[in-house]
Design goal:
Layout (H helix, E strand, L loop, with lengths): L7 E6 L3 H12 L4 E7 L2 H11 L3 E4 L8 H11 L4 E6 L4 H10 L3 E4 L4 H12 L4 E2 L1 H11 L5 H4 L5 H11 L4 H8 L3 H15 L4 H10 L6
Parallel strand pairs: 1-2, 1-3, 3-4, 4-5, 5-6
Helix pairs in contact: 2-3, 8-10, 8-11, 9-10
């Protein structure tokens, strides 16, 4: 940010050209925002972040070549002074947690008003963390210790979540056992416990749960 003018330099990363261009035009109407570039995918976002050194990067989650989570991880590691705001249509717990764990400073939804996006840009520049109201209470409960990570996934353990992801990709218990280097009986026991916790009866329901929670790509 220019100390003299208080203008925040912003880079937008989104694979939807119309949304990206439209947002850029809207943001340029604000005197304290300067859109310095646009990226069409995660890999380009990483490259332009290093090249342009923006103050804030508005990052979509689902992009080709490199998704927003991995791009965020790389940029936070290599360019820690850049603040990253996730701007997406997804409000599932899994995506929010992954984004914050990757180092994002905030998580906004694409239906946000432009004024709200601008306010969030300035907020993260001041060191604040911004989260869309649709998911804020759940995430803040976890961050402040009111709830545990397990509560976001109905009590599933780390191993059960791992098995759930594999089930959702179509793996049978025997394949899961081989992948995780456990016995088939142990795999079956984990699956049974998971079904009981989620109150489901089959692998199709398990896969739907994994999709709804943002645990797998679709």
């Amino acid at each position: 940010m220019s100390v003299a003018t208080g203008v925040v330099r912003v880079l937008i990363a989104d694979d939807q050209t119309l949304f990206r261009d439209g947002l850029a035009r809207l943001l340029q109407e604000y005197p304290r925002i300067d859109v310095v570039g646009q990226a069409a995918d995660g890999a380009e976002a990483v490259r332009l972040a290093a090249e342009l050194q923006p103050d804030v990067l508005l990052m979509d989650l689902k992009m080709p070549s490199l998704d927003g989570i991995e791009a965020t991880q790389r940029i936070v590691k290599e360019l820690p002074n850049i603040r990253i705001l996730i701007l997406t249509t997804f409000e599932t717990d899994g995506y929010v947690l992954q984004a914050l764990q990757a180092g994002a400073s905030g998580y906004l939804l694409k239906d946000s008003q432009t004024d709200a996006i601008v306010s969030s840009i300035h907020a993260v520049m001041s060191g604040e963390r911004v989260i869309a109201s649709a998911v804020a209470n759940r995430v803040l409960d976890m961050l402040t210790g009111v709830s545990s990570g397990k509560e976001f996934y109905d009590g599933l353990t780390r191993r059960e979540l791992e098995i759930l992801r594999l089930i959702a990709t179509g793996m049978a218990n025997k394949q899961i056992a081989y992948r995780l280097n456990i016995s088939e009986k142990t795999a079956r026991n984990h699956v049974s416990n998971m079904y009981e916790k989620l109150q489901i009866n089959d692998r199709a329901q398990a896969a739907l749960y994994a999709v709804r929670k943002g645990l797998i790509e679709i």
